[in-house]
Design the sequence.
């Protein structure tokens, strides 16, 4: 990896590259550092802006990339919760800033896309190894058996707790990194590099299983990895890969079935979460019950919604009225980006979001860009279980990679990878 942080070009480009690299490296950690790098990168971009680059800011592509920020802004009209709407708008500012930043950066930076994606994968690998090391330290300190590593105390949020990051969002970073490494693996001819990529893939898969985010793991195993491989392989290679991958999936399913903690997380909790009535005392308020009341609120104003910033107040009220006290005390949101948008901005807002996703998929298809396609699949699927655009780390992930893969660091063809190790 000696050449990973080495680039050619002007001092302007080098500084911009190191900013982008630093943002990616700090993405899994406290949002303060990401915000600091974002501000510094914005100032750097504005210092070097020129008339030609400034013109590129006002484009249809940037309008689409900024659409969710503009939707929140439009939703403030007539909102009864303008203070909360303003806080949401400030949180989503990155969705506006990254398209602007990528528009004014030197286009020459696009040839370093592979390096930046590699930095993402390496960051996730090192972070996973750190989390396993921390878990091992705890096991040794309390003299616990090794099998305790796969107990509820060390999976899901408990595994990612040392870095203070929600397990689902870290899983999304890992899933995108897996798509990157699989893409590089199929293109690589050097056996040494292929071994390194395979090792990295194994570490990322282990971290993904340990984090136990159902939506991300299922999406990765069923859609992203087979999808990347399908486009990279030809003829009989696809058949052989399908056979191997089915065996891997079978082993994974068998392992989940044999381990109580994983079986409970992936099977029983999913069943409980989608059940109208509580099955046991640990599932007081299944997610589908909360969705039921969210839909009731949506029915009150289906076309334009209740306005930006209204979700928290309205949900707390209906939770309390219907004795969902756990959801009330923890101020739980809809845990579904599609329902959240319907609640705040109605069918018109949901149409904007779906068209934005469609734009990303169309771009991925036209350019045969499987990394962008993997990103769009992640956003589309995880949005069924999380409010991605209401949490800083979700917003940063959405804004940075949507802006960079669609606009700022897009590649003309899929074959832009060169070894960077």
Sequence:
């Amino acid at each position: 990896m000696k050449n990973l942080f080495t680039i050619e070009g002007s001092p302007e480009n080098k500084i911009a590259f190191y900013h982008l690299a630093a943002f990616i490296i700090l993405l899994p950690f406290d949002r303060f550092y990401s915000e600091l790098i974002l501000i510094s990168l914005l100032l750097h971009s504005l210092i070097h802006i020129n008339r030609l680059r400034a013109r590129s800011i006002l484009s249809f592509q940037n309008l689409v990339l900024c659409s969710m920020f503009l939707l929140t802004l439009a939703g403030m009209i007539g909102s009864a919760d303008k203070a909360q709407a303003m806080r949401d708008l400030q949180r989503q500012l990155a969705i506006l800033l990254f398209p602007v930043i990528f528009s004014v950066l030197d286009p020459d930076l696009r040839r370093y896309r592979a390096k930046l994606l590699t930095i993402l994968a390496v960051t996730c690998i090192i972070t996973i190894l750190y989390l396993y090391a921390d878990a091992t330290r705890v096991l040794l300190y309390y003299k616990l058996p090794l099998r305790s590593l796969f107990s509820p105390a060390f999976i899901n949020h408990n595994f990612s707790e040392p870095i203070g990051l929600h397990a689902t969002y870290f899983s999304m970073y890992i899933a995108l990194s897996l798509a990157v490494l699989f893409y590089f693996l199929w293109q690589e001819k050097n056996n040494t590099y292929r071994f390194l990529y395979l090792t990295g893939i194994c570490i990322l898969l282990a971290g993904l299983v340990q984090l136990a985010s159902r939506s991300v793991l299922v999406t990765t195993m069923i859609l992203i990895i087979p999808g990347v491989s399908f486009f990279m392989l030809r003829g009989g290679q696809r058949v052989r890969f399908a056979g191997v991958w089915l065996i891997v999936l079978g082993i994974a399913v068998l392992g989940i079935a044999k381990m109580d903690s994983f079986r409970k997380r992936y099977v029983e909790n999913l069943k409980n979460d989608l059940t109208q009535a509580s099955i046991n005392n640990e599932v007081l308020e299944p997610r589908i019950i909360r969705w039921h009341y969210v839909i009731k609120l949506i029915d009150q104003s289906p076309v334009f919604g209740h306005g930006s910033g209204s979700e928290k107040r309205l949900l707390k009220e209906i939770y309390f009225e219907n004795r969902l006290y756990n959801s009330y005390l923890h101020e739980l949101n809809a845990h579904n980006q599609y329902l959240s948008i319907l609640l705040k901005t109605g069918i018109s807002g949901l149409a904007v979001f779906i068209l934005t996703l469609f734009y990303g998929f169309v771009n991925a298809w036209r350019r045969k860009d499987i990394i962008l396609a993997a990103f769009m699949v992640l956003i589309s699927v995880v949005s069924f279980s999380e409010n991605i655009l209401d949490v800083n780390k979700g917003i940063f992930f959405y804004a940075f990679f949507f802006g960079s893969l669609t606009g700022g660091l897009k590649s003309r063809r899929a074959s832009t990878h060169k070894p960077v190790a």
